[in-house]
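Whether sequence alone determines local backbone shape is best considered at the level of individual chains. The sequence in question and its structure tokens are set out directly beneath this paragraph.

===
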Amino acid sequence: MLEGNLCVTSCTPDGNMMSQVSLLLLLLFGQLAVTEGGRKDWWTKKITNNFYTSGRLTARQLKYAAESGAYKSVLSVFFFGSNGGPVCDGSCDDFYPSTSEYLSIAQMTGIPYKHLPKTVSWLSSNGVTMFEKTVSTMPKPVLVHCYFGYSATGLTLLYLLKTRQLTCGDVFRQAAAIGYEYWTNPTYVSLASQLSGSSNACKPVAGSMTQNTMSSSWSSYWPAKRLSDRIYIAGQIQHDQICQLKQAGFCAIANMRKGPTTLVTNRPSQEEVTLLNIHSYNPSTYAKGGRQLRSNLLQARLDPNKPNSYISAKSKDNFESKNECEFGDHIGYNETTERQYLAAKEIRYYHVPVGGYFRYDEQALIGHYCVLKELFEEQCPVLFHCRTGTRSAYFAILYLAVSEGRSCSWALSVARSIGYDFSTYPLCRVIESFQDGRRQVPSCGTAPTRKASTPTADQVQPSTLAPQTSKQASGTQNRQKDSDVSGS
């Protein structure tokens, strides 16, 4: 879902803007069934206004997609049959549904769900024809999914090429932005050439062919959005996805969400955690005595008529009151829980917290610059994450623009290519302030550096520190990093 609105009504830590109409209706009627977007569907990839793609949906993700209100139907490129089961280690109550379970969950959410016949190969003219026939009867926008996103995205692009909604150059350019190198697949190139209706072979636009350091392994964690060979963007991760992150080759994670308390004033600062059948925007974490009070959750339901089984077979309510899978507690999202969990998994962890829209400024970049520099100098893939990927994308792109002398138009273009619109953010102003000399980046040196505005380990509140693993205690590189901007 595209984000990046100027916050002039109801703002969130990621800079999203809630619809004034939706907010007013919710405040007035409370029990009204409404939909929302952004926070629950950050992991989809926009192809056109009518088509989005993803990898294999978990039960939770299918519900999130329906609750977002961004999609009118869902199409699976594959027939999964009875092939379902837990996600990775099964540490969450989430799971991969079988085909019949997908249909059952979709019916419960109210979103139409279809799948292509199991005998159809996506990489064939027959597959494109069947796709065209199927989507012609489906309400738009359609969310198309498969196992890792590769087939769903490839088939959607071929359909758009056949129907003249995209050119050959568009197909390969969009694929490159997502991280799929279809030009290396001779069958795909041949089929694209055939479908284009041109006598010339379908070829990628010069400059769009970039070699991915991680090859296709990054798609093991398909929700990530590829910024470069070593830098990827994501929203909130789940603890049952850590094995996927390892399979994808990520060696470090940079978390840009706020910690349980601010480091300077020690004020409570937990962000909201995403909950099923609960509005993400209202109330905020600490409003009305606490967002996750039962009385508040009852008023914040998206659909008060959902059956309790929508949450789980044993649920006593038709809404979720806590989400431990996304490191939530009884208050909201808990960054300490995430860092402790990752420390146990021996993944390098950097905490680079950023607040709301008015923290997307020069001081934030200066305060975090040396930690960002260290992250970009990692010799392995790094995942930047926040709640929806907005903060992560913004500061990763901002750092690249300032450190490499890139223009504002370049930064905006790169952001749009991975699904973020920062045209109403202060991105250009911040870039120009460093380029014209009004602001200076700090000198970081060659060793890991902490600026004066960044607390050292003994200044950090105990609740924000994660216990070291035995390897960390012995001095390995698997250490915790903290960087905070004063007052965030």
Observations:
- Residues 1-37, 447-480, 482-488 have pLDDT under 50 and may be disordered.
- The chain is about 30% helix and 10% strand.
- The longest helix spans residues 362-376.
